[in-house]
Inverse folding.
């Protein structure tokens, strides 16, 4: 590797990820190398049709080596666990680093909203947050990612040339230059490196 | 060092409590912060302090702000399987009571109230039931009392009603006028709408069933526990507590005082 992702990013305490169209494959791509015992919490919003119960957590639990759960209201965030936002509710991170759900208006026609997750997580983790925005067909997440940067977090956008749908990554790039623009396989390698770098 | 905007937010919430006795101090912070930011744009205030000055000196402005701070997102027969479970699992037990009191806490604009009233009427229970429908937002309560909903929304509610085990045509319960559905006023003959805060008020009646759906998610754990305490105190022996589809007693100290009746549908019973 010859880009910035090769040098470990220190002091990361939590990872948030947003994706829309093409997101299932993209998320499987970046998480598939995560080892059993991975130490950081990951919180993800993947836009889905609003059917009441999502199978995401089950699908990913079968494919990954880390525990996967659907986020519950007022749940404490455990290290090494991947949380998915369920359909129909916004997912936020509170200052005490627990999860909370809400039903405010949709953002860019979406609930859960990536912007809401990223913004609240940036308030909770500040420089300790790594935010990753992937493939998608709308602009949700761009503002949230810019806010993460303002709060001195680290930002990553999937290389739009590789993204299955490039609207979401391009919207983020139009608003602010992220710390890294990477392919899925590079993002996967970055996550594994985080794990091995001392905080 | 705390951010200035976080200090301002805490001061605003404190000012609202001191001046108007509305207590948002133990609401979930992330959502309150977003709603205040939204209100700032609507009020054209550059800072939270400027918003505070407005609402502190102008009660009408505070009532406007209250509309942004509360979230009136609701549907009739929201989560149809929940209402089906009430019909199948709770109603047979409710029928054993000679008279029934139901508390719908945080009733917002009334969708849950009319849903419950329709269900009870179809089960022959409405005549011997008193429903207390409470909320902190007077504007929402007024709307709930009117029982007028947009016809566009009512189309979605019709699907919910059918999936919830509705026994008639949903149109039997309302009269369509222009773009609105005016609900049968006999549905609310036994409904008392009242201003009540789960954050500051106490129990006002013994009840057999309490429905509090998509209210507790806006509270932090401490305030959730206060609400669960009120519910526990109000409910009769073996009374029913029903929550929203993403709300749970699992993370509360009160989980020992309730047992799940239909866990998937968030229907609990006082142990």
């Amino acid at each position: 590797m010859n880009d910035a992702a090769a040098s470990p990013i220190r002091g990361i305490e939590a990872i948030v990820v947003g994706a829309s169209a093409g997101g299932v494959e993209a998320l499987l791509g970046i998480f598939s190398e995560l080892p059993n015992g991975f130490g950081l919490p990951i919180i993800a919003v993947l836009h889905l049709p609003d059917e009441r119960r999502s199978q995401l957590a089950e699908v990913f639990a079968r494919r990954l080596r880390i525990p996967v759960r659907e986020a519950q209201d007022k749940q404490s965030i455990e290290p090494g666990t991947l949380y998915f936002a369920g359909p129909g509710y916004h997912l936020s991170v509170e200052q005490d680093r627990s999860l909370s759900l809400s039903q405010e208006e949709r953002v860019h026609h979406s609930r859960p909203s990536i912007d809401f997750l990223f913004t609240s997580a940036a308030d909770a983790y500040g420089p300790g947050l790594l935010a990753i925005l992937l493939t998608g067909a709308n602009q949700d997440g761009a503002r949230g990612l810019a806010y993460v940067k303002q709060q001195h977090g680290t930002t990553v956008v999937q290389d739009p040339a590789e993204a299955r749908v490039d609207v979401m990554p391009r919207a983020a790039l139009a608003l602010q230059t992220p710390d890294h623009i990477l392919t899925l396989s590079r993002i996967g390698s970055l996550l594994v490196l985080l794990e091995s770098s001392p905080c | 060092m705390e951010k200035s905007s976080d200090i301002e937010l805490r001061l605003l919430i404190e000012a609202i409590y001191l001046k108007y006795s509305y207590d948002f101090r133990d609401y979930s912070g992330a959502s309150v912060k977003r709603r205040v930011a939204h209100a700032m744009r609507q009020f054209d205030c550059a800072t939270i302090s400027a918003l505070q000055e407005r609402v502190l000196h102008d009660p009408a402005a505070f009532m406007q702000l209250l509309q942004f701070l509360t979230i009136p997102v609701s549907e009739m027969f929201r989560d149809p399987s929940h209402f089906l479970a009430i019909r199948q699992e709770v109603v047979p037990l409710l029928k054993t009571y000679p008279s029934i009191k139901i508390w719908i806490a945080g009733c917002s604009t009334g969708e849950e109230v009319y849903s419950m009233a329709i269900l009870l009427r179809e089960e022959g229970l409405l005549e011997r039931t008193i429903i207390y429908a409470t909320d902190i937002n007077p504007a929402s309560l007024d709307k709930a009392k009117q029982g007028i909903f947009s016809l566009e929304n009512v189309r979605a509610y019709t699907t919910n009603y059918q999936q919830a085990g509705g026994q008639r045509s949903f149109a039997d319960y309302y009269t369509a006028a222009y773009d609105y559905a005016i609900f049968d006023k006999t549905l609310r003959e036994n409904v008392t709408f009242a201003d009540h805060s789960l954050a500051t008020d106490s129990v006002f009646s013994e009840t057999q069933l309490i429905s509090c759906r998509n209210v507790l998610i806006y509270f932090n754990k401490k305030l959730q526990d206060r609400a669960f305490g009120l519910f526990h105190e109000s409910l009769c022996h073996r009374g029913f507590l029903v929550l929203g589809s993403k709300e749970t007693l699992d993370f509360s100290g009160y989980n020992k005082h309730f047992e799940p009746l239909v866990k998937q549908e968030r229907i609990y019973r006082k142990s």
In short: Strands of chain A lie at 14-19, 42-46, 68-70, 82-84, 90-93, 99-102, 129-133, 154-158, 180-182. Helices of chain A lie at 23-31, 56-63, 114-125, 142-150, 167-175, 184-196. The domain at 4-194 of chain A is CATH 3.40.50.180 (Rossmann fold). Residues 1-6 of chain A have pLDDT under 50 and may be disordered.
